[in-house]
Request: fold
Amino acid sequence: VQLVESGGGLVQAGGSLRLSCAASGRTSSSYARAWFRQAPGKEREFVAAISRSGGNTNYADSVKGRFTIFRDNAKNTVYLQMNSLKPEDTAVYYCAAAKTPFSGIVPGTRGLYDYWGQGTQVTVSS
Reply:
């Protein structure tokens, strides 16, 4: 499975961006998907995750109420709608996919994800 992110850029605080992550591979629609981010000098951290069907989602506390993850399995694409952006949201955002068929809450643990994209830069100016 190959993952390709797009949609990053420079935005002012309070603005919005929508990230996309397109997946290749016949079985990619059967994988749970997630977004992580990594700011300069910091560890990569969990942002949001979504189950294979899209029925279950999970968010980091720092983005709840501002970010929304959703997917279009017909397009093998997962999205991250980011609203009310803050300077502390500045980071490289990575898309990930997991082969494990999680039940219930989709986890935000890096080690559980098998495939990663190259990342897209999001910069929020104050």
About this structure: The chain has a mean pLDDT of 95. The first strand starts at residue 2 and ends at 6. DSSP finds no helices and eleven strands in the chain. Residues 47 and 60 are 5 Å apart (CA to CA).
